[in-house]
C-alpha cells in the first residue's frame, strides 16, 4: 500500500524506538484535531473530523421504524462506513469494501455494545416512541474522504461529534390507537430533541511497531505495524469495546498495559474533542 | 405545479436566469496529486486526481496517449432519503463515462503516453446538477494536479419550465419533468464538449435554453479562473517569491 524504501522503514522504526517520530511527535502524542459540525444539511446531524491528512465525515439520519420484536423497548442503530476512492486509488470499484466492512464492524462493536445493546454508548431506549410499535432507526454513515492512518479513531470522533450535532424531531402520537394498530404520528419539524452524548465513547488505537506502541499512527507508520489494538473508552473510564487487528500475537500482559495507557490517552482525547465539538456547535449557531 | 411565480421568482427565491451560489476550494484531499471541492447551492462534490502515473493494468496501456479513468460515487447520506446500495449502479456508471469523455477531450493526453490519470468524484450532497458540479470540480482538481489541458471545462445546466428558460436547476426543478440541458464547454476555445438533454423542446426554445446554459458555463469559468488565480497567488506567497 505504502511504497517505502528499506532506509525509510528503518527511519520510522528507529524513530519510534527513540520516542521521536518522523513528524516530531512523541509516541503518545496525537495530531491536532479539527472538528466541523453540520456539514451535511440533509442529515439530522453531521460532522467532519480532520487529523493531519486523515479526513472523515460522519452523518446521522433518523427514520421512523418498527422496533425489533425481541427488544420492543429499544430503537435501532446501524453503523456503516464507506471508503471513498478519493482517499486512495485502491478503493476504486469494490476495492474499498473489505476495509469498509472491517471499520464498520469495529465501530459497531465499539459503539453499540453487542447484540443486546446493553453496553451501548447510545441510550437505545431513548429512541423509542411507542413501545413495541414505533421507534427511531438511526443510520450512522461514515465516509473516508482522505486517509492517512488512524481511520478508526477519526471515525469514532466524527460519529461522536455528529451525534452531538443531531436533533431528533419531536414526535406527537395521536391518542386512540389500540391493539395491534399502528398509531398515527405527527413528526414536528420545529422541535428537536438533543442526544445525550456524554456516554458515547472515543476510540484509541494503539499501534505496535517493534517493541513499542504509538497512538494516532500515520499510514506510513501503520505499514510497519505488527498489530494494533483499538480500545473504546467512555468518559467514566469504562471500556466499551476492544478489537485487535494485525497478524502478530500479543502477550496478554502487554494488552493490559496497553489498556491502561489507552485510558490516560482517552481522557485527554475526550477533553479536547468535547471542547472542539462545543466550539464547532457554537460557531455553527452564530453563522 | 408552479415553478415560476407571477413575480418571476423560482421556488428557492432565484430569478430564472440566476445561478445558485457557487464555491470552489482547492486542495481538500491532502494525499491526492490534485483535489478540489465544488459547491453549487446545496450540491457539494469533491474531486481527487491521481496521476499521471504508471498504468496499473498493463493491458489497458496506450502507447500514444495517457489513459484517463473516472469513477463517480455518491455518499450514502448525499440524498434526501438514505440510499441502500450506491456502488456501481447504471446511473453512476453512465455519469463516470460522461465525466471521463468530457475531461479526456481537454487533457493533452498525447504528452503523457503510457501513463494513467485517475479522476475520482465523490458526491457529498446531491441537489440537482451533480453532473455539472462534478465536471467543474474535476476541472479544478486537474488544474491543481498540474495536468496539461487545452482549456478548462466548465459545465452548467439549464431547463425549461412554465414556458420560462431556467438556469442551474435544483433537485425539485430537475424532477419536475421539463427539459434539462446539461452543457459543458471549453470557454476560451468556445467549444462544446458535453451536451445532454432529456424531454422535448422546440428548436427555438432549445436555442434559448442552450444560450442560457452557455452563459452559465462562462460565469462558472470566470469564477474557476478566480479560484485558480487566488490559489496560485497563495503558492507564490508561500514560496516567498
TrEMBL record, chain A:
The keyword Cytoplasm applies. The keyword Oxidoreductase does not apply. Residues 30-169, 200-264 form the Exoribonuclease phosphorolytic domain. Keywords: Cytoplasm, Exosome. GO terms for molecular function: mRNA 3'-UTR AU-rich region binding. Gene3D superfamilies: GHMP Kinase, N-terminal domain (3.30.230.70). One of its GO terms (cellular component) is nucleolus. InterPro entries: ExoRNase_PH_dom1, ExoRNase_PH_dom2, ExoRNase_PH_dom2_sf, Exosome_comp_Rrp42_subfam, PNPase/RNase_PH_dom_sf, Ribosomal_Su5_D2-typ_SF. One of its GO terms (biological process) is U5 snRNA 3'-end processing. Pfam families: RNase_PH (PF01138), RNase_PH_C (PF03725). It is found in: Cytoplasm; Nucleus, Nucleolus. Belongs to the RNase PH family. This is Ribosomal RNA-processing protein 42. It comes from Prunus armeniaca.
Amino acid at each position: 500500500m505504502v511504497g517505502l524504501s528499506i532506509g525509510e522503514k528503518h527511519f520510522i522504526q528507529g524513530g519510534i524506538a527513540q520516542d521521536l517520530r518522523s513528524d516530531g511527535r512523541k509516541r503518545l502524542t496525537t495530531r491536532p484535531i479539527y472538528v466541523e459540525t453540520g456539514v451535511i444539511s440533509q442529515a439530522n446531524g453531521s460532522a467532519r473530523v480532520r487529523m493531519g491528512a486523515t479526513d472523515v465525515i460522519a452523518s446521522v439520519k433518523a427514520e421512523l421504524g418498527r422496533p425489533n420484536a425481541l427488544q420492543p423497548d429499544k430503537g435501532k442503530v446501524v453503523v456503516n462506513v464507506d471508503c471513498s476512492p478519493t482517499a486512495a486509488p485502491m478503493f476504486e470499484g469494490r476495492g474499498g469494501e473489505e476495509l469498509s466492512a472491517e471499520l464498520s464492524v469495529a465501530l459497531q462493536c465499539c459503539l453499540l455494545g453487542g447484540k443486546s445493546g446493553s453496553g451501548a454508548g447510545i441510550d437505545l431506549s431513548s429512541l423509542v416512541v411507542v413501545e413495541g410499535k414505533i421507534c427511531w432507526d438511526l443510520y450512522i454513515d461514515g465516509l473516508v474522504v482522505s486517509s492517512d492512518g488512524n481511520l478508526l479513531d477519526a471515525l469514532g470522533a466524527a460519529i461522536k461529534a455528529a451525534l452531538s450535532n443531531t436533533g431528533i424531531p419531536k414526535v406527537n402520537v395521536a391518542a386512540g390507537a389500540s391493539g395491534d394498530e399502528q398509531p398515527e404520528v405527527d413528526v414536528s419539524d420545529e422541535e428537536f430533541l438533543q442526544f445525550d452524548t456524554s456516554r458515547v465513547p472515543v476510540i484509541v488505537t494503539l499501534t505496535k511497531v517493534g517493541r513499542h506502541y504509538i497512538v494516532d499512527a500515520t499510514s506510513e507508520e501503520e505499514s510497519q505495524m505488527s498489530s494494533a489494538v483499538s480500545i473504546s473508552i467512555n468518559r467514566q473510564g469504562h471500556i466499551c469495546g476492544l478489537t485487535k487487528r494485525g497478524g502478530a500475537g500479543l502477550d496478554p500482559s502487554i494488552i493490559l498495559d496497553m489498556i491502561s495507557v489507552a485510558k490516560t490517552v482517552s481522557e485527554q482525547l475526550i477533553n479536547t474533542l468535547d471542547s472542539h465539538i462545543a466550539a464547532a456547535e457554537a460557531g455553527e449557531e452564530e453563522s | 405545479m408552479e415553478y415560476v411565480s407571477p413575480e418571476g421568482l423560482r421556488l428557492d427565491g432565484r430569478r430564472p436566469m440566476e445561478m445558485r451560489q457557487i464555491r470552489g476550494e482547492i486542495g481538500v484531499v491532502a494525499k491526492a496529486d490534485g483535489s478540489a471541492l465544488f459547491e453549487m447551492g446545496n450540491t457539494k462534490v469533491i474531486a481527487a486526481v491521481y496521476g499521471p502515473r504508471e498504468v496499473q493494468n498493463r493491458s489497458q496501456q496506450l502507447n500514444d496517449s495517457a489513459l484517463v479513468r473516472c469513477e463517480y460515487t455518491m455518499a450514502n447520506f448525499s440524498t434526501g432519503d438514505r440510499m441502500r446500495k450506491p456502488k456501481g449502479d447504471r446511473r453512476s456508471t453512465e455519469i463516470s463515462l460522461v465525466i471521463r469523455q468530457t475531461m479526456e477531450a481537454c487533457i493533452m493526453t498525447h504528452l503523457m503516453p503510457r501513463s494513467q490519470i485517475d479522476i475520482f468524484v465523490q458526491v457529498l450532497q446531491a441537489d440537482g446538477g451533480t453532473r455539472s458540479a462534478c465536471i467543474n470540480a474535476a476541472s479544478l482538481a486537474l488544474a491543481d494536479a498540474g495536468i496539461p489541458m487545452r482549456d478548462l471545462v466548465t459545465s452548467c445546466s439549464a431547463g425549461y419550465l412554465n414556458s420560462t428558460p431556467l438556469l442551474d436547476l435544483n433537485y425539485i426543478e430537475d424532477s419536475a419533468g421539463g427539459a434539462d440541458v446539461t452543457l459543458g464547454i471549453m470557454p476560451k476555445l468556445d467549444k462544446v464538449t458535453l451536451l445532454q438533454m432529456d424531454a422535448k423542446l422546440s428548436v427555438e426554445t432549445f436555442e434559448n435554453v442552450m444560450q442560457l446554459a452557455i452563459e452559465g458555463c462562462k460565469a462558472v469559468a470566470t469564477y474557476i479562473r478566480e479560484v485558480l488565480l487566488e490559489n496560485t497567488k497563495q503558492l507564490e506567497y508561500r514560496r516567498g517569491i
